[in-house]
Design brief:
With 239 residues, this protein is an alpha/beta fold. It has 2 domains: 120 residues, Rossmann fold (3-Layer(aba) Sandwich), CATH 3.40.50.2300; 97 residues, Arc Repressor Mutant, subunit A, CATH 1.10.10. It is 51% helix and 12% strand. The chain has 11 helices and 5 strands. Strand 3, helix 3 and strand 4 form a beta-alpha-beta unit. Helix 8 crosses helix 10 and helix 9 packs across helix 10.
Amino acid sequence: MIDVVITSDIRIYYEGLGQILARTPDVNIVGVANTCEGALDAVTDHSPDVLLLDMTMADSCDLACHLSQVNPQIKIVALAVSYDEGNIIQCAEAGVTCYVPREASINELVEAMREAAKGECYCPPKIAACILHKLQNLTSSAKNRYMPFSTSDPRRLTGSARRRQTCLTQREQQIAGLLAVGLSNKQIARDLSIEVSTVKNHVHNVLVKLEVSNRSQAVFSLQKRSLFPGSESMDLDPV
């Protein structure tokens, strides 16, 4: 059962969502809040698995950032996310786990909640593209959408980072890059035209090779070892 708190300052919105989601077998609405302060109280009182946060609310990103710091166990699902790149990046920096755009269906919302509760990310392709575009702009070493690792000049990496890079196959590097922008296994499978089971195998291999236990740790490990663009420790030649 997924315990959920809904936060929105639009009454008809949060009441409607609550009534619909209450009919979903594995969803338990434990609280509703129409202010950021109310959301903090609801999270403290009920310790939900997921917070559904209406991003049209004032200070919603500040709330997400605060909660991700004081309660990192809670998964934040951003509702009504626009496709504005600045807004999307702000959500990512605030600790949002899953993104549900304004035109999403209830089924997509429920899927996002389920992915969030499992510790996975849910990121529609258009939003993932915005994040990836931002990451590509962070360094000139990003050559294309699916290969966000610099392999053109191995002299640009330290010896340790180079060994870590070569331990991943080209496909594993490709999939690790898509994990970093928040795509789920299903989305990666769709984008790469492969089976979900194949994606799971590759993800497992990435985790084993990087000696980490989950996807978030894998991304952090790649950033720390200068294998992901945007890491300040990457030793790149000036452009």
